[in-house]
## 1
Amino acid sequence: MSDILDEVLERIKPTKDEIGFVGGVVSEIIQRTNDAISQLGLTAKTMLVGSVARGTWLRHDPDIDIFILFKETLTREELERKGMAVARKVAGPAGEEKFAEHPYVTMKFHGIDIDLVPCYDVADPRKIKSAVDRSPHHQRYVEGRLTPQLADEVLLLKQFALGTGVYGAELKRQGFSGYLCELLILHYSSFSRLVEEVSRWVPGEVIDTLSYYPDKSEAKIIFDNQPLVVVDPVDPGRNAAAAVSLQNFSIFVRASQDFLDRPSLRFFFPKRVKLLTPAGLDRILKRRGTRLFCIVFRSPKVAPDVLYPQLRKTEKAIVTRLVQEGFEVLRSDVWADSISAILVELSVSRLPSVKTRIGPPPNISAKDFIREHLSSRNSLAGPMVDIAGRVIFEVKREWNDALAFLRDIMSQRVSFGKHVSEAVSQRYWIYEGEGLKEPLKDSGFREFLSEYLTRRLPWYR
Amino acid sequence: MSDILDEVLERIKPTKDEIGFVGGVVSEIIQRTNDAISQLGLTAKTMLVGSVARGTWLRHDPDIDIFILFKETLTREELERKGMAVARKVAGPAGEEKFAEHPYVTMKFHGIDIDLVPCYDVADPRKIKSAVDRSPHHQRYVEGRLTPQLADEVLLLKQFALGTGVYGAELKRQGFSGYLCELLILHYSSFSRLVEEVSRWVPGEVIDTLSYYPDKSEAKIIFDNQPLVVVDPVDPGRNAAAAVSLQNFSIFVRASQDFLDRPSLRFFFPKRVKLLTPAGLDRILKRRGTRLFCIVFRSPKVAPDVLYPQLRKTEKAIVTRLVQEGFEVLRSDVWADSISAILVELSVSRLPSVKTRIGPPPNISAKDFIREHLSSRNSLAGPMVDIAGRVIFEVKREWNDALAFLRDIMSQRVSFGKHVSEAVSQRYWIYEGEGLKEPLKDSGFREFLSEYLTRRLPWYR
């Protein structure tokens, strides 16, 4: 295993030259920020945080986070006005304003992505005013403990998470953040020990390095049975692994088990998905024999962290209505770029006209149930009694064609995400089977659909 | 309600003339039996039992049961030899030998069905050697308690059970025997009080007129949670309602509820099922949109009480395999005459090629599951992890065409009834959809299929 890890490190660890180059960029941008602060006559501190500050950035992927820290006495409005003034001045016309919980500026400088983020300089991390105020505390906690040796272990873990598909805490991904990777290495002290431990994790795992919770079951209750709880050392009320879904938790555990079993570079550098050609699409759809529907619409202009939860909510609403009507949904998924797509794969797209309505068991009155169905024009047979003694009717199914029903669902948009519902109400397309060749022309969608139809855990590709 | 009951009684109670005629036949047959016994130099008693003996026979449906009682000291072999000699002598060439638990003779005499049944004359009904030995005890118990007024109430109950489709304890029917109807009237003392009480029955009802079980929950346990327990007054270890299925129990309760709600002659004399024409069959199949399969074969030469349980077992085996393979079975049923039929109605007869195999949850090793599926040529996608954290594969479905799968099931005949399996191995036919016009030519099958496709509780027809 250690040969493999050496090889991985060889590939992902920044070279001296790269470190020198990034260091130069950092010095320059900090200098510029300090200059901007004094030119604007403000009182603020500049702080480099994140992976570049801690030496845990993956080669080719430096991401410089400059935080501009203001006194807590400022109002929110003052902070944003003054902070953004500094950031704009640093970035100049190259800057682009963004908005997560609060506004910030992003820019490219010497080819490197840089975020300029105003925040409060809060003494007690449990009393922060917004999530960004926590980053300086994370920075201080990690930099005081992370030796260069440990930083290498973090690099291995990040690449492992990346390769197995669970890296990133954004809502699109629901995986492991860089900070979480650092905390895990600080806890387990090496990548190889970490995979050993993770291979034995079960959902409900609690990691509490500073022993804030002597009773782990208490932590489980407080953190509401999340699959993974990693108590944030700078704020014991926060779960640093809150973003991790059960699915990604489980993938991470399986990856660790499989890696221990047969260590390989494939966990870090999986094969890429083979892109489907139109003919390949035909072939695979024929082999599956399912009915694959894809709902496409222009993506609403909101951040991915807003869009993805809405897409998933919409996916769930659609799947639930299909299932309630009797359609079997084999799998479904969502994807977004400039266009958004919701895939729904059905076993069968036409159901019979008749379906069974099950009424009360023998010990409950069936009077209303029977009266209601007898007077309905949709009753085909019944009342009868099944072998379990329940009264049943056979009634006409409201929807027996999946496409017609999908169009009805899309026109009603019940429980859809807000922005998704607005976008869909403008216009949407439903592609099915061979019709998917049309959206396949979009290279991003093509990658998504190719991965969907040949899905395997990345290290099995 | 009492007008209705008067009218029912008017229709079903034998007239004086009929009673006189049947009484004459009974006298004659008892005389003949006694003569046969003495002519053969045997020691035995003749006893009239059953509905004719108790005045609880429905007009046009007298059924004379003559029991020939021998001493307990005889061996089984002696009993059968001597008993059958008497019965054969009484019946002459008109007799037909039958076999239930033991041999007996049946004959038609002056147009009336007569059974001649040899049995042991056992003093203590709890020590009988076979079920037929119990009948004389039932006879003595009922005749000592049933006044002519109560006999009329029994007639009402029998016709009610007949009209609602739950009369008869034979395995084809799984309903209420004549003796059970008598016990229920002896317990509740009138038909109208009975329907009141039955309308409140819940599964697990225990009726114990002689209070053998002071603790009803004890009776429930002893009788293994049968839906209805009526402790046999002559043998507290026996449930006189053991034949009653949960389905028929529930129908009986619903019928009582509905009758109280709106008393009508329809509960006693329901409309007959309208027989389907070939064109009507087309119309109803189209309206249902389901795939109706009918497996037909020559009935094995066994009694209905042997055949029906085997048909139901076979039906269950077929339905279970279809469901396990992913086919949705809407309804199924069996029927037999000189041919036997198993109906299976599917929502859809073609499934996609792919199906999901769900593996272990996150806390269980998936190694074997993954290895096994990776090496299988049937895997189409996977391993992947679903949102519940379980490892899943998508594999090729073995059977996606219901008809081909049905033929495979019929060739394997796993868990089929023994005689059914033998009959099927000779030859069988599968009819589907419009093909059902072929067996529709059989008038018995036609009635069965017509009832199946327009099924309603009889009093709702």
## 2
Amino acid sequence: MARQCIGIDLGGTLIKFGLLDEEGNPGKPFDLPTPQGGGDAVVQQMIDGARKLMEKHKLARSDVAAVGVGSPGPLKMSEGIILATPNIPGMVNIPISAMISAALGIPMVLENDANAAGFGEYVALQKTGIRHMVFLTLGTGVGGGIVVDGKVVRGAHDIGAELGHMIVQPCGEPCNCGQCGCLERYASATFMSLRAQRMVQDGAPSSLQETLKHKGKINSKDINEARKAGDALAKKVWDEAAMYLGIACVNIARMLDPDRIVLGGGLANAGDDILLPVREHFHRMNWKITPPETAVVLAKLGNDAGFIGAAGVAWQAYREGSIQCLLLP
Amino acid sequence: MARQCIGIDLGGTLIKFGLLDEEGNPGKPFDLPTPQGGGDAVVQQMIDGARKLMEKHKLARSDVAAVGVGSPGPLKMSEGIILATPNIPGMVNIPISAMISAALGIPMVLENDANAAGFGEYVALQKTGIRHMVFLTLGTGVGGGIVVDGKVVRGAHDIGAELGHMIVQPCGEPCNCGQCGCLERYASATFMSLRAQRMVQDGAPSSLQETLKHKGKINSKDINEARKAGDALAKKVWDEAAMYLGIACVNIARMLDPDRIVLGGGLANAGDDILLPVREHFHRMNWKITPPETAVVLAKLGNDAGFIGAAGVAWQAYREGSIQCLLLP
């Protein structure tokens, strides 16, 4: 078997493990549950999962170039430390790179989970020769990953690519982050649902009145279905999200001029129902000085993007010799 | 004399020539007028200026590592071609890198003028160890330059860092570029003046009524002076520009997380009068999740940024061996 990197995608419920070979071909991943009993248990599960993956594929330590971990943050990526993970109890100041590389005898790279997913989609685009890509993940929140000239952009303080917190509406909806008018407040599945729910509760006429009465809440799928059935309120909320995503795409194109803007996350499961309106707003609002060079497309990898990108970042660090933790036992 | 790169800053009125040594120390530059008689005359003036600079400093061909040219665009940077320069007649499809490197026997790198000025400010920050910087130039328009991890971000189609055309106001003021609500329409010296002039012509009470009657127009200095003397309209226009620049700074911080956002161009000559309000809006609107890591500061180099940055980009390309035109005669 060719040399591999191990990718680990740490989530609040599941940890995903999988391989990526030198040519960018991923293996079939598996999941283990995320222990809820504190940081040590989580790290041990990650070590056990990596060992299980190596056994399954009969990989010796020397067959694995590096391990990449995509984790929610905040992180100190360059030092390999997870500072905190709001959705996983007990993960505070965990020197994960040192712990995992010591246990496995393989160097480890830590990456922000959204950056990792973005880099996964970038790995999937490699056969096209693309070097510049921006990933927008539309789920509970709106996250992002930026690849410039083939490399993840982390920023000076490891807090770059927070694309959900670009201000797209001056003095707009207040966000938990302390800003107003963040993209996330208009274009995440959660807040799109909340906005619809608020309007419905305020008595706006809509078929979603029935949905709310029936289910006690409204989700983005309900909005899309109501919209397709001709509901005006649903259409307004959906279209507003697409418009603000269009503004975000214009601003990304003006700043970074990528080949692709890739839409992922739960909301992107709506496929063309979300892609086409975003594209339409993007092209309508985009400048006319050059043809629209940046293409807006859907993500391809779904839930596999995280482990593939984590392993891809590990490959890159390995090749550059910039891998963070080489303290082998 | 230590080895040098030559920096050439091509402007509509003047061409500036100067040296930059390996440690990032610039020499004293000089200007030659920009010929208005077509592309060949402009290129010849650039060649003559470079030769004059070498003679003045007694530099042999082998003492010069490379030449960098900062030019208005659009450009094909990777191919070293100036496609057009709206403010210099006759510059259409000029293979400038090939022409200059053949004439001088020294390889040449072509860079966008705003990117070059941004990289100049980055060179000036090098003793601080900074690797991530965004430059905003506030003049006739609003331009930009982005440095990520020590390298200029050009984008996939050489049209990145067009920071003046970020949309900061959905459905805002229409821009010549075809977009609406561009930063440039609120925060450039030109458009700030136009906005004030429009309000004054519409009869808004302001001390600028007198200025307009007297001078036939209002410029950004007039607005700043009226503002400091307590004029409400002037205060509103100035503060609005600062507010939109604050939004731009938030969005830059969220996307790229730079160490510094550097304000340059004519409007930045107002010094603290523009810096402090921009900072205030930035800090007020910025998220509260982390302390404000990105510092907003004034540019240091004034009109020298362009030649220093062009030479800096040449040094970088020389060191990387990625210089575009090695077709020596």
